Amino acid sequence: MCLKAFVRSPFRGLWLVLGLLLITPLAAQPPIGTPDEFDIEYPDDEEPSAEQVALGKTLFFDTRLSGKQNMSCASCHNPDLGFGDGLEKGVGSDGTILGRNTPHLYNLAWNALFFWDGRAASLEEQALGPIESDVEMNLQLPELIKRLKAVPFYQKHFAEAYPDQKPAISETTIGHAIASFERTLISDNAPFDRFMKGETEAMSEEARRGMALFLGKARCINCHNGPNFTDNGFHNIGVASGDVGRAAVQKGVTTQGAFKTPGLRNVLLTGPYMHDGSIGSLGAVVQHYIDAPKKGGKLSPQMEKIELSDLEILDLVAFMGALTDPVPVTPAKVP
Amino acid sequence: MVCDALNLRRAVLAVALAAAFLPYSHAGEISGTLSFVKKPPSVVLVYMADDTGADKGKKRKLDQKDQQFTKKMLVAPKGSKISFINSDNTDHNVYAADTDAGADFDIGLAPPGSTIDQEVNWAENAVIRVGCKIHPKMRAYVATVDSRYNQVLELDRTKQDHTFALEVPDTVTLVRVWLPNYEPVEFTLEKGGEHKVDLIKKGKVYGTLTVSRK
What we know:
The complex is a heterodimer. In chain A, helix 5 (123-132) packs across helix 8 and helix 11 packs across helix 12. The relative contact order of chain A is 0.16. A two-stranded antiparallel sheet of chain A has the order 1-2. Chain A has twelve helices and two strands, in the order H-H-H-H-H-H-H-H-H-H-E-E-H-H. By secondary structure, chain A is mainly α. By secondary structure, chain B is mainly beta. Chain B folds into two domains: 24-53 and 148-214, Sandwich (Jelly Rolls), CATH 2.60.120; 54-146, Sandwich (Immunoglobulin-like), CATH 2.60.40.420. Chain B has one helix spanning 2-21, and strands spanning 28-36, 43-48, 60-65, 68-69, 73-75, 81-86, 95-98, 103-106, 115-119, 127-131, 139-143, 150-154, 161-168, 174-178, 185-188, 194-201, 204-213. In chain B, the strands form five sheets. A four-stranded antiparallel sheet of chain B has the order 13-1-17-16, with no helix packed on it. A four-stranded antiparallel sheet of chain B has the order 12-2-14-15, with no helix packed on it. In chain B, strands 4-3-6-9 form a four-stranded mixed sheet, with no helix packed on it. The interface between A and B is medium-sized, with 29 and 28 residues.
């Protein structure tokens, strides 16, 4: 194909993207693509049963999990708000404004560490954290167990879901059930996934150009890589919030001011952005990545200096929009 | 005729000399099958625990590429050194925090192209996990094993049955098998013998190991 024909080709965006995908392995980042359920690391390699997932869903929506019975997991991780709350920072059951933005829950089944600072090593551990936190749901687990044991529905369904566990209602089974439900929140059929399967028109021309920028000039791929668009890593990206982030959990030269790379699936639905919720739009997020390296400071070496035109920023946002595949969840009927 | 006899004597002498100067003799092998009821672990270590002849002066290498360690497990005896290499185009780090084994190190920021040495100064016969503080999904194991007769099996996790074979001299008989999160397995196996054992994780049987020796 001569250059003139290439420029005129309606598929030029596709060729550019495919060309970049071929080059991507050389760039040594895990390739972007559709996540494979075989790669999910279940606790003890045991996939949860349907009963355990259903029980976890009911618990997720039950306000009994908060001290004042005015808040459930879904209060902050609202399925209709991208499993977030749409707020800059989370709000506790007594109205306290928390220190960080509420993270989304999409595709956590493939995640490694949890919370913005990675202080929980498993989704089971994470699920229990906000329940006990005095500024969040503020309920000690022994009290929660007592509450659940008093409900015939939970007596029956815990016994059925965990027949080998004595007692059936425990910190372990509560955490396991909630985490099991959360692992089912899988988004893997976005326009991007269909495009990768060969449905060339699944992504707009703008999104295709944005994907080429994402993989190339804009260097988003440095950290937002792999099937869930996260390296599961921790980086200081220059959001000046005064929060030490990962360093509070793990000492080291690499952890100061570093926060977990959030996965970008359904990112359009999960604003506001950054660990402190300080940026309201994806366009402004991209602008931050242009501006922050120029300001200097102890940024992650992944924060390369980049220049993008306004049109290129819009193309990147269009590509991030192509990662949208909502996970509809009907709230469980709470007993 | 005289010439043939001379050649025969020379051949016998050569074999006798070779036998006398060999530090050990590979007189046989152990072979085995690991069968799992579900997804197998990523790696298995099999070694003869009653040998202590590993070369402590030899530097072992563990590389990082494509945001992964290039090996799932490295075997290095206590007192040796490991070179942590970063062949990636992104910064990495290697650390361990295993209080039981006394392994507590952090090589700091390892830029692309760097090689940083770390002495293996923690407990013998321990398997510790090393990771990268920047990329927590990067994990590998380091086994402080003195034995020359060891084999690391990186398992294809889509398959439930796996085999191995390891050449061993007659002088060693103690077989140890290590699998992440499983109860360690140890047994004595003499020439001509066979041993079958359950592979147990958190009190539940997740597979069987059958080993024979010839």
